[in-house]
Structure to design on (231 residues):
């Protein structure tokens, strides 16, 4: 059981370049999330998805785009990379139990992508 | 609005000593509460969670946490710390009936021999 898989693990981009961070999960979770982590700042939500075809903005969506064509995949697109996007990016997923009325069992995280924009 | 405060940016404990990491939250009702651990270069791993019921919850790796409604706290404890526990720990809160989670800024734990 792989859980949440992110690729690549490291990447260096030049200012103005674009790239896609890949995220896939094999747990059949409905909810998926993209966070960025900056030193001393905790995690900031970029985008999230509640199911295939449905996405919404989080706290810091500017400069990013997402899509969710399948339950498994939730790629994050960076257009026109800027130095402010230098960060560690984490993808996560979560499930719920409607019968127990528990809507958040906690998140499963990928191992992250460390991105540097120069 | 929900918020999470971890008052300690970093803590140093001796191996074998007890540990308590503090977490305070702000939420109108009883929230979902979580603790995560992040080892260097890794993603976050769920240590334990509280939904309702018994206010003392047990997690993985020998950790436990106690929910205290009157103090809006959810402190993480371990009776005897091992060198492998050195990591960053995040407290998090989720709204009941929702799926989003707000994370604290984290507490970095250093373990000295």
């Amino acid at each position: 059981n792989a859980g949440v898989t992110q690729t690549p693990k490291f990447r260096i981009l030049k200012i103005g370049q674009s790239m896609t961070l890949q995220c896939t999960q094999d747990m059949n979770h409905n909810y998926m999330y993209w966070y960025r982590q900056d030193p001393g700042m905790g995690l900031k939500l970029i985008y999230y998805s509640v199911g295939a075809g449905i996405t919404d903005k989080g706290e810091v969506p500017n400069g990013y785009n997402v899509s969710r064509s399948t339950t498994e995949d939730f790629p994050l697109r960076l257009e026109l990379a800027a130095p402010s996007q230098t960060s560690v990016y984490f993808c996560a997923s979560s499930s719920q139990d409607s019968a127990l009325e528990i809507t958040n069992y906690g998140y499963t995280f990928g191992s992250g992508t460390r991105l540097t924009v120069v | 609005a929900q918020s999470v405060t971890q008052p300690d940016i970093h803590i140093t404990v001796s191996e074998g000593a007890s540990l308590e990491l503090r977490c305070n939250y702000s939420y109108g009702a009883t929230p979902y509460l979580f603790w995560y651990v992040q080892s260097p270069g890794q993603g976050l791993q769920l240590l334990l969670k509280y939904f309702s019921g018994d206010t003392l919850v047990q997690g993985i790796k020998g950790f436990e946490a106690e929910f205290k409604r009157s103090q809006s706290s959810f402190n993480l404890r371990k009776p005897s710390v091992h060198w492998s526990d050195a990591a960053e720990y995040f407290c998090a809160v989720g709204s009941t009936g929702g799926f989003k989670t707000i994370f604290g800024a984290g507490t970095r734990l250093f373990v000295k021999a």
